[in-house]
Design brief:
The chain has 217 residues and is of the alpha+beta class. The protein has 4 helices and 16 strands. The chain starts with a helix and ends with a strand. The mean pLDDT is 87.
């Protein structure tokens, strides 16, 4: 599950210089678990299925916030990824980009944790990014982005299951859409075979054996 992957990533994140900060007190994984519960509680039914909260605010004591200060940005990124993975595991969709913020609660004591999860619609046609398995990020623009084996592709893959020009990411008035270019093996989005699909934040496109995640930025 997404939270299990999140826990493993957090273990790597807090190794070495950060390990002393987590011998006691509030643990980052507790925040991830609370976010998952708030997403479950705040989901609603949409046209495409369950819609989960995408704007998440974490409120901590000043003391706990200070403990996280050395890698706050990295923790926020991991929490956002954990939220996306939980949504994929549960079949949730988002109506806008996933945003996680961590802020101080002046009245909180050490160990206190509050999480507010809201559904906030994103702007139509918001900028998008493709995240490749090796961590590389490909910024999308107005021009179509072709995925395939040929070197002229914006996303060039060596996967033998991928056609020379396999799929294309196109921008239209509603956002970014992935379109199969009559490929041999087709494409999947979130495990479902499609000919074309309007992408939402966190969607995973399978091209051959390569998973490419779409994020709104």
């Amino acid at each position: 599950m997404g939270l299990q992957r999140f826990e493993r990533r957090l273990e790597r994140l807090v190794e070495g210089a950060f390990s002393k900060a987590f011998r006691s007190g509030l643990q980052p994984v507790e925040i991830g678990r609370r976010i998952a519960r708030e997403m479950d509680a705040g989901r609603t039914l949409g046209v495409r299925g369950p819609v989960a909260p995408n704007r998440i605010t974490v409120r901590l004591s000043n003391e706990d916030l200070e403990r996280f200060a050395g890698f706050r940005d990295a923790l926020v990124a991991e929490l956002a990824d954990a939220a996306r993975e939980h949504a994929r595991d549960e079949g949730y969709h988002f109506s806008g980009p996933v945003e996680v913020t961590i802020e101080a609660d002046e009245n909180a004591r050490r160990g206190d944790l509050q999480v507010r999860a809201e559904i906030i619609a994103g702007a139509v046609g918001a900028p998008g990014t493709l995240v490749l398995p090796d961590g590389r990020r490909v910024q999308l623009g107005e021009e179509p982005a072709i995925i395939g084996r040929l070197p002229d592709c914006v996303v060039a893959l060596t996967d033998p299951q991928v056609s020379r020009h396999h799929a294309e990411i196109r921008r239209d008035e509603r956002g970014y859409r992935v379109v199969d270019l009559d490929s041999m093996n087709g494409i999947q989005v979130n495990g479902v075979q499609v000919r074309e699909h309007l992408l939402a934040d966190g969607d995973v496109v399978l091209v051959g054996a390569t998973e490419i995640r779409y994020e709104e930025s």
